[in-house]
Amino acid sequence: MDELEQFYGGTPDDLLEARLAQIEEALFGERPAAEALLAWDGDKLVGFASYSFHWPAEGFTTSLYLKELYVAQSSRRTGVGKRLMTALGEIARARRCSRFEWGTDTGNETAQRFYASLGATPNDGKVAYRVTL
Fold first, then answer.
1. Residue 59: which region, alpha, beta or left (left: phi > 0; alpha: psi -120 to 50)?
2. Which end of the chain offers a freer environment for a tag, N or C, measured as fewer CB atoms within 10 Å?
3. Is residue 57 in some structural domain?
4. Assigned domain for 73 exists
């Protein structure tokens, strides 16, 4: 998670205990905000994908929304990201989702090339908004 925070320009100043408590609440709290897939190489965590389900999607179905796909720098270009994306697609099909959606920062050309290599195309029909609370 420190590497992810640094990737987005942050500095992981929070105490480890505080970050672990935030993860615990988000994934295992009374109302989990997301689910996550973890990619391991032996006993080393090398990647993860956090996702949730949006409703309504097409025809009042659900959509699997990938919030974050991250592969450790040392494990990139080894197939970890592709395996995580494949597993997410399988989860979406098993849950009868009509869509599998995600976004990336406009300047993250590496991620955009990766997603294009999987056959994905950008959705120009949406504008994203954010309010920081």
1. left
2. C
3. yes
4. yes
Domain contains 4: no
pTM score above 0.85: no
- How would you label 80-97 residue by residue, b for 16+ Cβ within 10 Å and e otherwise? bbeebbeebeebbeeeeb
Question: CB under 8 Å to 100, separation ≥6 — which residues?
Answer: 63, 64, 66, 88, 89, 92
Please report whether residue 54 resides in a domain: yes
User: Residues of 26-40 as b/e, b for ≥16 C-beta within 10 angstroms?
Assistant: eeeeeeeeeeebebe
Of 94 and 8, more confident: 94
| 106 to 13, 50, 57, 72, 111: CA distances (angstroms) | 26, 20, 24, 21, 10
What the block records as the tokens of 99 is 């869509």
Domain count, the chain: 1
Structural domain including 76 reads 34-117
Handedness of CA 118, 42, 72, 69 (dihedral sign): positive
CATH code assigned at 39: 3.40.630.30
Provide the phi-psi class of 92: left if phi over 0, else alpha when psi is between -120 and 50, else beta.
Answer: alpha
